[in-house]
Specification:
DUF2452; DUF2452 domain-containing protein
């Protein structure tokens, strides 16, 4: 009988409470509905009775920990994006530098028609004029008349590759040619593919 009276008192208190107050920052308890759809599926006394006060503290701590994890996760993702932006900025800077160099080299004095695939040697006269020659410093020997500034290969896209980078650039172009000559250069799979990254 005492249980029934306690149940009635508890139900009356809980029903009059309405929506439960928020627990901690950003967390809230679920609103009490003792008879959803008109049916009492479980005893409100056992499911909604006042429990250990530390339950609310634990709930607030859980919400706070979730906030910390979400912030850390977002920070990690933003860090990766920032690194990608820095990498793209560096690539853009190099593209602009290479384009400026290529434009300057195309304006260098030359008494011949430059053909893609050939290496040209850049010299500087006493007057300060720069010019291209097909004769290397080695071919000149000790009688080289002017200061040697560098050697460049004219690529088929009319860009210039410094002599020290020719072998690496030719390897890249060869690899791209090989991919383009295959019937299917890339697999038709739309799933993430890490093939080639582990070898």
């Amino acid at each position: 009988m005492e249980d029934a009276a306690a149940l009635g008192r508890t139900e009356g208190v809980l029903e009059s409470q309405g929506p439960q107050p928020a627990a901690g920052q950003g967390g809230a308890l679920v609103e009490l509905t003792p008879t959803p759809g008109g049916l009492a599926l479980v005893s409100p006394y056992h499911t909604h009775r006042a429990g250990d006060p530390l339950d609310l503290v634990a709930l607030a701590e859980q919400v706070q920990k979730a906030d910390e994890f979400i912030r850390a996760n977002a920070t990690n993702k933003l860090t990766v994006i920032a690194e990608q932006i820095q990498h793209l900025q560096e690539q853009a800077r190099k593209v602009l530098e290479d384009a400026h160099r290529d434009a300057d080299l195309h304006h260098v004095a030359c008494n011949m028609v430059k053909k893609p695939g050939n290496i040209y040697y850049l010299y500087k006269r006493e007057s300060g004029q720069q010019y291209f020659s097909i004769i290397s410093p080695k071919e000149w020997g000790t009688g080289c008349p002017h200061d040697f500034l560098g050697a460049y290969k004219l690529q088929h896209d009319l860009s210039w590759t410094p002599y020290e980078d020719i072998e690496k650039q030719d390897a890249k172009i060869g690899m791209m040619d090989k991919l383009l000559s295959q019937s299917v250069a890339l697999p038709p799979c739309t799933e993430p593919n890490f093939q080639g990254l582990t070898h």
